[in-house]
Amino acid sequence: MTAHTTKTLLMLGDSLVEWGDWASLLPDFQVINRGIAGEHTEELSARLVSEIDAVVDAGEEPEYILIMTGTNNLLMGSPYFPVILGSMLPRLIDLCPQSSITLNSIMPMQLRGLTQESITAANKELREVAQQSGCHFLDTTTPFTEQCLPVTKPGFLHDGVHLSTRGYQVWAGAIKKHMDSLSSPNNV
């Protein structure tokens, strides 16, 4: 019987990260939850060094880092957050050179005044930023589109932004599948 080692996953982001019950959703990972409700990408960028210092001081560099940010920027009509991420990701790589870093897409929310086209455009920019930085990209559009939309399905709460229990299960499944692919011997 081989020993089971728990991999460390640092999650940085907004309320979608903060409100997840990650211990039960991702039991194969030691999740360090550094989500802050209402946070914009600029604020995450400003606290990045102190968050990484706290995590590293408490143990070691996490195997995985997942960033979920930009939702609040998009909701407030500030579509320039991918530029901020473009400067933030190289700093994060310098701080955690051994970590596998993934940028998560914006969820396919449904709100009046926010079109799916604007979310798709933002996700295209996020994918490009991740690729240019040498990071991974997790596109959660397909799992949510297939399993949780329209909002009348149980993936989102009535506000159309925040996730229900079912929504968190779908997201956690996508995260686990993505992280498993990163640790696969076939992953280059």
From TrEMBL:
Q: Which residue intervals define the domain SGNH hydrolase-type esterase in the entry?
A: 12-170
| Alphabetical list of InterPro entries matching this protein | Ester_Hydrolysis_Enzymes, SGNH_hydro, SGNH_hydro_sf
Q: Give one GO term, molecular function aspect.
A: phosphatidylcholine lysophospholipase activity
Q: Which domain of life is it from?
A: Bacteria
Which PANTHER family does this UniProt record tie to the protein?
A: SGNH HYDROLASE-TYPE ESTERASE DOMAIN-CONTAINING PROTEIN, THIOESTERASE 1/PROTEASE 1/LYSOPHOSPHOLIPASE L1
- Please give the name of this protein: GDSL-type esterase/lipase family protein
Q: What is the lineage of its organism?
A: Bacteria, Pseudomonadati, Thermodesulfobacteriota, Desulfobulbia, Desulfobulbales
